[in-house]
Design a protein that fits this description.
- It is a single chain.
- By secondary structure, the protein is an alpha/beta fold.
- It folds into two domains: 7-105 and 228-258, Rossmann fold (3-Layer(aba) Sandwich); 109-224, Rossmann fold (3-Layer(aba) Sandwich).
- Helix content is 35%, strand content 21%.
- The strands form three sheets. The protein has a six-stranded mixed sheet, sandwiched between helices. A five-stranded parallel sheet has the order 8-7-10-12-13, with helices on both faces.
- Strand 7 (125-129), helix 5 (133-144) and strand 8 (149-153) form a beta-alpha-beta unit.
- The longest helix has 17 residues, at 226-242.
- The radius of gyration is 18 Å and the shape is globular.
- The model has no long low-confidence stretch (mean pLDDT 92).
Length: 265
């Protein structure tokens, strides 16, 4: 018997080689017996982005994730966006509904769920490094979740100097690409000003424990890694694409295997 044609999903971004999202999604599709596949597409410039988005309909894609640096630039290429994208100004995935490309953003929702496994967000004094597409989404969702104060420090401001964490910070987040494999760059931070009770968060997915998080752990801070955020937002995307409500354990096992870790349980 000829197997059914694969339903295609994927991701647009640059760089994408180190992201485990394709192996994670493919393992989850297989677990639920879906003839679906996930392709990472490395799109290096805006001309190629426009061509890639235009090709999604004729190629029959069911959905597409969007990562750096295209979360803002992709919006004019879509047929419509949801209320979250309107509020945030960035999209991190799209659905393809009746031939229409619709942009969505759940970056911040994934972050909120991941952080609240460690500490409640209400009343937190947050410092965020980076204000790109992901940073915008997270800033909005953190405010909606009850954060008391939010300070944004952009990459341009960081360049060439170390950043001192303001006194009273209770949640510190790296929303830049610093620390991503293979370069593994250090975040230019003055750690001496950080309270050990401060929750430290990194959006990087590979490696799971970045130099930023490793230093925070050494100083006794509770940490939230980017893989946990990826799992939380990917579960929502999977449900919207397929109509199936996934078990979190399935996604946790899939991402651990994708990263070469030993899955819990």
């Amino acid at each position: 018997m000829i197997p059914p044609q694969k339903q295609m999903t994927g991701m647009l971004g640059h760089p994408v080689a180190e992201n485990p999202i394709d192996r994670m999604f493919d393992a989850v599709y297989a677990h639920y017996g879906l003839p679906w596949q996930f392709w990472k597409n490395d799109i290096a410039n805006t001309d190629d982005l426009a061509l890639a988005v235009k090709a999604l309909r004729p190629l029959g894609y069911k959905g597409m994730a969007i990562t750096v640096p295209w979360k803002v630039a992709v919006i004019p290429l879509l047929d419509g966006v949801d209320g979250d994208v309107e509020a945030i100004g960035a999209a991190n995935y799209m659905t393809i509904e009746n031939g229409r490309l619709i942009g969505h953003n759940n970056d911040g929702k994934g972050v909120v769920k991941a952080i609240e496994k460690v500490a409640p967000l209400k009343g937190q004094r947050v410092v965020m490094l980076g204000a790109g597409g992901a940073g915008r989404a997270m800033a909005v969702e953190l405010a909606w979740a009850g954060a008391a104060h939010l300070t944004l420090i952009t990459r341009r401001e960081e360049q060439g100097r170390e950043v001192a964490v303001p006194a009273g910070t209770t949640l510190l987040m790296n929303a830049t690409h610093l620390g991503c494999a293979p370069e593994m760059e250090e975040v230019p931070l003055v750690w001496d000003t950080l309270n050990p009770a401060c929750v430290v968060v990194d959006v990087i997915t590979n490696p799971r424990i970045t130099p930023f998080l490793a230093t925070a752990r050494q100083r006794g801070c509770p940490v939230v890694d980017g893989v946990e955020m990826l799992v939380q937002l990917a579960m929502q995307i999977f449900q919207q694409w397929t109509g199936i409500t996934p078990e979190e354990a399935v996604f946790q096992r899939a991402v651990a295997e994708a990263l070469g870790e030993t899955p819990a349980g």
